Amino acid sequence: MTTTQIKGGTVVTAADRFAADLYIRDGVVIGLGQDLNLHADTVIDATGCLLLPGGVDPHVHLDFPSLSTTTADDSNSGTAAAAQGGTTTIINFAMQQYGEPLPAALQRSVDQAEGQAVIDYGFHVVVRDLGADRIRGIDEIVESGASSIKLFMAYPGELMVDDGTLLIAMERMAAAGGLTMVHAENGSAIDVLARRALAQGHTSPQWHGRTRPTLLEAEAVHRATVLAELVGSPTYFVHISCAEAAAEVAQAKAKGLPIFAETCPHYLTLDNSVYDGDSFEVAKYVMTPPLREPHHQDRLWHSIRRADLDVISTDHCPFCMVGQKDAGRDNFLDIPNGVGGVEHRLLLLFDRGVRAGRISLERLVAITSTNPAKLFGLHPRKGSLMVGADADVVVLDPTGRTRLSVTSSPSRVDYSIYEGWTVGGAIRYVLSRGKVVVDNGVVGDHRGHGRFVARGATATPN
Ligand code: URP
Ligand code: ZN
Ligand code: ZN
Ligand code: ZN
């Protein structure tokens, strides 16, 4: 039996904050308060620091295939990076091969991650096709603890499903008590724009952004909310990037529909001016949806404050410039889409959100931990610091400063879109089920500490 006390900090929840010591026994929170007089073998001094529930990042691609390559991070390096940034649970993707039963896809990913992760993890199953004999697989994966699926309305020929498949999947998932995630962009229309650009000789990465307009994101959000309404499906839109799409989510919520959505730090902190010029360096910013004009950021922050956006995930999907992104030097469609950043979510949002006066500390906890834990069936084990919860804790020093750089990250990608940025706040310690996995800002070698977490039914955040 091991016991730990985290002493002298201020606990922050999604609702409020209070001075309290935190007591941990065998990986679980057993006491929270002042002058509790419980015994502890180890004492961590958190004087002047904030104690936050460990982050839950529900949108992370590790060991993820794209075009002819695979993400630079696997379950070990990606979860080490996540831990360094204060995330103690990630949800990765298990990719269904065409024709494959969904439980087989899940099992393959579970086997591949076994013994690798530093922090706890789960999987969403990416559904690519749903023949009549495969639909029942949705019930089976939910029973196995993967209570969410993801479908793509983009990437024709690779991942895109038609509206009928989306409807059937939503209907079955709703009945099973799980959550359907949707990548909403009109893939067929984007395909026309992209091929037309290429035919006109526009092969450079700048054209990735120019051929994925905001209207085609908003249209897809609208279409999927109609399908979700028809079958009463709790539905979660990933990576909302623009005002028009955020407005569609707001409208659906105003109707009382169980529609939820996330955005990502890059849409809040970067804009499409990075696509100016004709250097191939622009490929660093080739992610989907692309970065938008600066004015979209205000609308996204507004939606976060109003709870029209429920979660901020990273969509960590790293590909190296050398040997991966450079496959698209002559054709922007050959650049694998995605950027890293799983390690920077908390401090970027603490700095640009809380310190900049855009959101409260409590809202920060809600959107990075409590809300994703509830939506993805992890609460109350994850997402709140309370008695009986897993002792996943971040000790954040609000007076510290941190320089973001790929060189100090366990991620294996070869660049960062935040390279050299300095942010207010520093992560001193991160505990995963009571174990210190980040000590004075440095992540140790804890391969295999992380476990697969079986998730339950989706619950609505406050
Ligand atoms: O560019 C991105 N986001 N790559 C990952 C795949 C996806 O669309 O989420
Ligand atoms: Zn996506
Ligand atoms: Zn609409
Ligand atoms: Zn993604």
TrEMBL record:
Cofactors, names only: Zn(2+)
CDD domains associated with the record: D-HYD
GO cellular component: cytosol
InterPro entries: Amidohydro-rel, Hydantoinase/dihydroPyrase, Metal-dep_hydrolase_composite, Metal_Hydrolase, Metallo-dep_Hydrolases_sf
Keyword Hydrolase: yes
UniProt GO molecular function: hydrolase activity, acting on carbon-nitrogen (but not peptide) bonds, in cyclic amides; metal ion binding
Alphabetic keyword roster: Hydrolase, Metal-binding, Phosphoprotein
Entry PTM: Carbamylation allows a single lysine to coordinate two divalent metal cations.
List of residues that carry N6-carboxylysine: K150
Iron-sulfur in keyword set: no
Residue ranges occupied by any Amidohydrolase-related domain in the UniProt entry: 51-437
Biological role stated in the UniProt entry: Catalyzes the stereospecific hydrolysis of the cyclic amide bond of D-hydantoin derivatives.
Family: Belongs to the metallo-dependent hydrolases superfamily. Hydantoinase/dihydropyrimidinase family.
Annotated protein name in UniProt: D-hydantoinase
Species this protein is from: Nocardia aurantia
